[in-house]
């Protein structure tokens, strides 16, 4: 019996390179990549994607749509790491832990869209709490996140690791037009009735994310407090292999959050910080933007799909 053929289209970007690194020594699949001279050849790329069992697209949005449009082989399955299809109803959202049965839906899907890096943290925190009714769907959600510079792709890596690295900024807030492309994805998959306010930033470290969501308890139901929010997250992720909700006392005593703490893993740590006196709560997520936020999640979804190959 032949091994499933996995084609990485766009394996020279930051996500594609890490997916290739995670897969290159595996013996249960045949890895298909294109030589440098063939990567810009639309005919050769179309041949490759139609010759594989599962394609992983690590491309800009327009190129990802083009690649999907080139598929004529009905047996080809796709994991798209771009944001091109994340709000499309005919694509399965590739976040296995968000709800019961989601891993099974991914396993049997023909079209899977990998979550964005920032949405991974925001949705992991918000969706269980919104579904449980602890946070109203119309709550005015604000999200702040800081990512490593690899989140900008090769341009970010070149700026901080190339010849001009000495002049690279140590910190920069962006998305100030309040129209970041991840915002509709967060709203849809977190079950929010209103568009959240999302403010992202880059730090002078290669990879890792810390994402926070502040909550005012006075705007929630009288019986909702930090322990109640924490207990809900604990219940939701009790069986999740890659999502850990830190103990409430650990969250309360931790003096800082390190965005690089989970680099190189496919894990995400969620925390609930609460101040009973001031009736304020801070939700946080820490994970690797190139791990659970990109390549790690893609490989996790690939493994689910291979189980049904």
Quick overview of this protein structure:
It is found in: Cytoplasm. The protein is of the alpha/beta class and 309 residues long.
Description:
The protein is of the alpha/beta class. The protein folds into two domains: 5-115 and 294-306, NAD(P)-binding Rossmann-like Domain (Rossmann fold, 3-Layer(aba) Sandwich); 117-289, 2-Layer Sandwich (Dihydrodipicolinate Reductase, domain 2), CATH 3.30.360. 32% of the residues lie in helices and 21% in strands. The chain is built from ten helices and 13 strands. The strands form two sheets. It has a seven-stranded mixed beta sheet with strand order 8-9-7-10-13-12-11. Strands 2-1-3-4-6-5 form a six-stranded parallel beta sheet, sandwiched between helices. Strand 1 (5-9), helix 1 and strand 2 (30-32) form a beta-alpha-beta unit. Helix 1 crosses helix 10. The radius of gyration is 20 Å and the shape is globular. The mean pLDDT is 95. InterPro entries: AGPR, AGPR_dimerisation_dom, AGPR_type-2, NAD(P)-bd_dom_sf, Semialdehyde_DH_NAD-bd. GO terms for molecular function: N-acetyl-gamma-glutamyl-phosphate reductase activity; NAD binding. Its EC number is 1.2.1.38. It is an enzyme of class 1 (oxidoreductase). It catalyses: N-acetyl-L-glutamate 5-semialdehyde + phosphate + NADP(+) = N-acetyl-L-glutamyl 5-phosphate + NADPH + H(+).
């Amino acid at each position: 019996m032949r091994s499933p053929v996995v084609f990485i289209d766009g394996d020279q970007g930051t996500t594609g390179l890490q997916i290739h690194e995670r897969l290159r020594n595996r013996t249960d699949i045949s890895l298909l990549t294109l030589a440098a001279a063939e990567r810009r050849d639309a005919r050769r790329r179309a041949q490759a994607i139609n010759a594989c069992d599962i394609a992983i697209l690590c491309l800009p949005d327009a190129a990802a749509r083009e690649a999907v449009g080139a598929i004529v082989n009905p047996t080809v399955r796709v994991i798209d790491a771009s944001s091109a299809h994340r709000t499309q109803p005919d694509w399965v959202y590739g976040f296995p832990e968000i709800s019961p049965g989601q891993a099974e839906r991914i396993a049997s899907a023909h079209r899977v869209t990998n979550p964005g890096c920032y949405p991974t943290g925001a949705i992991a925190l918000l969706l269980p709490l919104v579904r449980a009714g602890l946070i109203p769907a119309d709550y005015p959600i604000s999200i702040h996140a800081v990512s490593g510079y690899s989140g900008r792709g090769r341009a970010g890596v070149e700026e901080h690791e190339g010849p001009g690295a000495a002049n690279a900024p140590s910190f920069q807030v962006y998305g100030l037009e309040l129209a970041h492309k991840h915002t509709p994805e967060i709203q849809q998959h977190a079950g929010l009735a209103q568009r959240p306010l999302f403010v992202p930033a880059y730090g002078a470290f290669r990879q890792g994310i810390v994402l926070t969501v502040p909550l005012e308890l006075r705007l929630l139901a009288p019986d909702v407090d930090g322990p109640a929010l924490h207990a809900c997250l604990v219940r939701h992720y009790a069986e999740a292999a890659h999502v850990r909700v830190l103990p409430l006392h650990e969250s309360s005593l931790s003096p800082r959050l390190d965005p690089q703490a989970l680099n190189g893993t496919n894990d995400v740590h969620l925390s609930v910080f609460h101040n009973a006196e001031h009736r304020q709560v801070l939700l946080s997520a820490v994970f690797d933007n190139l791990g659970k936020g990109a390549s790690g999640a893609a490989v996790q979804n690939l493994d689910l799909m291979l189980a049904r190959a």
